[in-house]
From TrEMBL:
Keyword Ribosomal protein: no
Iron keyword on record: no
DNA-binding span(s): 34-53
SUPFAM superfamilies named in the record: Homeodomain-like
The name this protein goes by in its record: TetR family transcriptional regulator
Pfam families: TetR_C_14, TetR_N
Species of the source: Micromonospora fluostatini
Origin: domain of life: Bacteria
Annotated PROSITE patterns: HTH_TETR_2 (PS50977)
Residues of the HTH tetR-type domain: 11-71
Length: 191
């Protein structure tokens, strides 16, 4: 098997695990689904499941976007107020995503929205993104408190937008929800 074939097989296995996990979470609820059930449905062992995900929660909470967000924030003019800089960085990061409105993402966020345990876990994983943003601002000379406040506000707004988009029945787009959230926090400085 060539390295490319191996990567392709890994991607297919991961996608199969995600798909079956989401199906089971939607049918039985997150709390009512076991790793064993997911693995069985995907026709792999539980050990294989854990090669791809550290926990059942990570099927829906895995967030590969932190480096993209940090670089997008870093790419904004340092003269901007920290909150505006973060908001504009988040806009730039959203523009770089391949397909931010895909159905797998919507399903994942909808499952999170429906589970108190997952919402709490989302807050914990968002803390890593928040720290990444704050650390980037601090490294660029923003004092620690304003950097942490800007990162916290932006992540709270982004989380609100994601949850609203995932549960909306009115055709709200992810880009529209995030844009509204970022417009709202950028407007705060003008009030």
């Amino acid at each position: 098997m060539t390295p490319a074939e191996f990567r392709g097989k890994r991607a297919r296995t991961r996608d199969r695990l995600v798909g079956h996990a989401l199906d089971l979470f939607e049918q039985q609820g997150f709390e009512g689904t076991t790793v064993g059930q997911i693995a069985a449905r995907a026709q792999v062992s539980e050990m294989t499941f854990f090669r791809y995900f550290a926990s059942k929660e990570m099927v829906v909470l895995d967030d590969p976007y932190d480096p993209v967000i940090a670089e997008a924030v870093a790419g904004q003019p340092a003269a901007l107020p920290p909150l505006v800089r973060v908001a504009r960085g988040l806009r730039a990061a959203l523009a770089q995503l391949d397909d931010p409105e895909d159905q797998v993402t919507r399903r994942r966020v909808r499952i999170v929205a429906g589970s108190p345990a997952l919402r709490a876990a989302m807050i914990r994983t968002n803390a890593a993104t928040e720290s990444t943003i704050a650390d980037r601002l601090i490294a660029d000379g923003v004092p620690a408190l304003p950097a942490r406040v800007a990162a916290a506000v932006a992540i709270a707004a982004l989380t609100c937008a994601l949850l609203e988009w995932a549960t909306a029945t009115d055709g709200t787009s992810l880009t529209g929800a995030v844009t509204t959230a970022l417009d709202t926090i950028e407007a705060v400085r003008h009030d």
